[in-house]
């Protein structure tokens, strides 16, 4: 599976149209579709984009939570009912609605942030601050990654 990687800044026009980075388009095409879902993050001022198979995985997880529990209802409302299905136009652009633009605080530009199986869309200034804080936290922590341990922990996860 190809992954959404790297960071790209693109101009947003007055109609909310913005070009999806070409490497992100390649990931979508590799997945045999140019259709994907975008949801407003409930944890940060960003949009989260993902291929439909990832959205289906989230749906299965939400379905596994107690039916009609408040947590299940909240997650279904925020992640499923509030999601937007996106398709690319002939020029590789998507249209961000006024509602999505307002959530992120985008004015003239948007930054696309690859997160592996997903990607995020941020206001560039906001994301710069978030990235600086993340780098600072990591530099002050003793976090390390062990690929051997990682492989054992994620067996069976796709």
UniProtKB/TrEMBL annotation:
<keyword id="KW-0238">DNA-binding</keyword>
<comment type="similarity">
    <text>Belongs to the MraZ family.</text>
</comment>
<keyword id="KW-0677">Repeat</keyword>
<dbReference type="GO" id="GO:2000143">
    <property type="term" value="P:negative regulation of DNA-templated transcription initiation"/>
</dbReference>
<dbReference type="InterPro" id="IPR035642">
    <property type="entry name" value="MraZ_N"/>
</dbReference>
<keyword id="KW-0804">Transcription</keyword>
<dbReference type="InterPro" id="IPR003444">
    <property type="entry name" value="MraZ"/>
</dbReference>
<dbReference type="InterPro" id="IPR020603">
    <property type="entry name" value="MraZ_dom"/>
</dbReference>
<dbReference type="GO" id="GO:0005737">
    <property type="term" value="C:cytoplasm"/>
</dbReference>
<keyword id="KW-0963">Cytoplasm</keyword>
<dbReference type="GO" id="GO:0003700">
    <property type="term" value="F:DNA-binding transcription factor activity"/>
</dbReference>
<dbReference type="InterPro" id="IPR037914">
    <property type="entry name" value="SpoVT-AbrB_sf"/>
</dbReference>
<dbReference type="InterPro" id="IPR038619">
    <property type="entry name" value="MraZ_sf"/>
</dbReference>
<keyword id="KW-0805">Transcription regulation</keyword>
<dbReference type="Pfam" id="PF02381">
    <property type="entry name" value="MraZ"/>
</dbReference>
<dbReference type="InterPro" id="IPR007159">
    <property type="entry name" value="SpoVT-AbrB_dom"/>
</dbReference>
<comment type="subunit">
    <text>Forms oligomers.</text>
</comment>
<feature type="domain" description="SpoVT-AbrB">
    <location>
        <begin position="7"/>
        <end position="54"/>
    </location>
</feature>
<protein>
    <recommendedName>
        <fullName>Transcriptional regulator MraZ</fullName>
    </recommendedName>
</protein>
<dbReference type="InterPro" id="IPR035644">
    <property type="entry name" value="MraZ_C"/>
</dbReference>
<feature type="domain" description="SpoVT-AbrB">
    <location>
        <begin position="83"/>
        <end position="126"/>
    </location>
</feature>
<dbReference type="GO" id="GO:0000976">
    <property type="term" value="F:transcription cis-regulatory region binding"/>
</dbReference>
<dbReference type="GO" id="GO:0009295">
    <property type="term" value="C:nucleoid"/>
</dbReference>
